[in-house]
Amino acid sequence: MIAFWVISIVMVASAVATVTAKKPVYSVVALLLNFAALAALYITLSAEFLAVMQIIVYSGAILMLFLFVIALLSSGVSSFNVGPDRMPKAAIPAALVIAIALGFVVYGLSNASIATPAAPSGSALGPVGSADVFGSVSDFGKALFTTHLLPFEITALILMVAVVGVVLLAGDKTPFVGTRERAREVRREMREAILREGGVQ
Amino acid sequence: MDAVMNAAPLWVVILVKSAVLLLVVVTTFAYAMLFERKILAWMQLRPGPNRVGPWGLLQPAADAAKLILKEDLTPKTADPLIYRLAPFISLLTAFSVYAIIPFGASADGSAWAIGNVNAGILFVMAIASLGIYGISLGGWASGSKFPLLGSVRSTAQMISYELSMSLSFVGVLILAGTTSLDGIVNAQQRWWFLLPQFVGFVIYVITAVAETNRTPFDLVEAETELVGGFHTEYSGLRFGLFFIAEYVNMLTVACIATLLFLGGWNAPFGLGMVPGIVWFIAKVACFMFFYIWLRGTLPRFRYDRLMAFGWKVLLPIATLNLIATAVWVAYWGK
User: Fold this and answer.
1) Contacts of B127 in chain A (CB under 8 A)
2) B109: Cα separation from own chain's centroid
3) What's the ipTM?
4) Taking the domains of chain B in order of start, what are their residue ranges?
5) For the segment A74-119, what is each residue's pLDDT rounded down to a tens digit?
6) Chain A residues lying within 8 Å of B130, measured CB to CB
């Protein structure tokens, strides 16, 4: 319980910092802290696999991409304050929508009888070495590939569509040219350019 | 209150274990550095460091004293907060992997590790994927060209090679049927995974060298093009922290190679009378030597070739290896 409160405070604080930070890179660092705290929260819920995946996928890959783009696009120094300030107008409706959505969640949670998984035997962190505890890798894998196979495959398909889309949108559309041919082409272009300029003195 | 009372001894045990391990890893780092300088020197027919202490054995202490006493500069253009934070991120991620790496096993089969988690190897991957932040944030926060270029290169390189590395792990995981590190070692009692997973091992070694930014994949700090790469602006102890992180990461990579492919603390050829920890250390040392050997032998890759190699050669081979392993285990396995 102590761990829950400490982690929650860190999470809320870092989430606020993510939104309010003046520099984009600070936002990324705050979000990184937030993701790490979320992983810690998963561990206290004995969802070991989910915690590790949270770090590998979100912190390691997605957030890294954010940082990459921010560092390259703006050198990270321009602050968010540039440009027209549209936030105040959007703030109140956005807050309302989120409040309603969260209200539904709380309402649903208080009414529905949630199928609580059988309490894991042993400590909350999962007994060391045993493979079949709730939230462990093998448990997660079994659920993923038997009960939830269809959603899993559909998700894989959607991700595949995204990958193909990226290649179509951003891929190099010029036909493939070998290195040597390309070098020859460049040489020819240079020679023509020199001739146009009146030749080398 | 009861829970706290019961937990207290465990915390103390973990704390003591961590302190001892930290000491061991830092000492190993110091002598790994000396080892590297000596071996490189011999490969190039020169004596290497031999002034401080007999045979240069006190050289690491002299280096440490120099780094600590050196002025710690922060460039005017740097982002002070992140500039200071970055080396610590590198160091933290480098050391935290050791929380779960087992170095041996007692007679009753319990592993010698601070913590033994089910997700073992996945935990290592998670922590390793965070290690990039130290480099990329450090390069960005320095506020000048060369570090930024170096860090962008490193980010792209590490993301590209991480994929093939993970795939090379999965082959081992399929064979072992577990993700916990001591489980993987126990699965290698009959033969090391080096044999059935030779392709995986080669891919792991290549990607591991790339992940730790060592020659021939050290484009991150290519002296001839980028001055010092991401740590150009760093000096004194902060540079030292990056340096420690790099060597500790090398050591981690050697430990993982030992655990996953070289049988961990299992003795080869039935030489069981030598304790497992000795085998473990010997295997890690061999791997470290291999690293240095590479550095003494190979020239640096060109950047576009590095990327093409990672995506067009390593990734397809790693995928094929994974598929072949999965099919083999499904039809003839276990």
Assistant:
1) 55
2) 26
3) 0.77
4) 1-69, 75-332
5) 654 555 555 555 566 777 888 888 889 888 888 877 765 554 444 4
6) 55, 59-60
User: Where are the domains positioned within chain A?
Assistant: 1-83
**A1-83 CATH fold:** Four Helix Bundle (Hemerythrin (Met), subunit A) (1.20.120)
| Per-residue pLDDT tens digits for B127-169 | 888 888 888 888 888 877 788 888 888 888 888 888 888 888 8
For residue B324, give both structure tokens.
Answer: 């072949």
- Token look-up 């935290």 returns B96
pTM of the model: 0.79
Task: Name the phi and psi angles at B197, rounded to 5.
Answer: -115, 40
Interchain CB contact of A72 with B (< 8 Å): yes
Length of chain A (residues): 201
Q: Which of B116, B117, B132 sits opposite A64 (nearest CB)?
A: B132
The alpha-carbon gap from A150 to the nearest alpha carbon of chain B, in Å, equals: 21
Partners of A48 on chain B (C-beta within 8 Å) are: 117-119
Torsion of CA B215, B217, B220, B225, to 10 degrees: 80
Contact between B122 and A68 using a beta-carbon 8 Å cutoff: no
Name the residue among B215, B210, B222, B220 with its Cα closest to residue B253: B210
- CA–CA separation, B258 vs B273, rounded Å? 19
Q: DSSP letters of B198-263?
A: HHHHHHHHHHHHHHTT-TTSGGGG-HHHHTTGGGTT--HHHHHHHHHHHHHHHHHHHHHHHHHTS-
pLDDT at res. A81 = 54
Residue type, A148: H
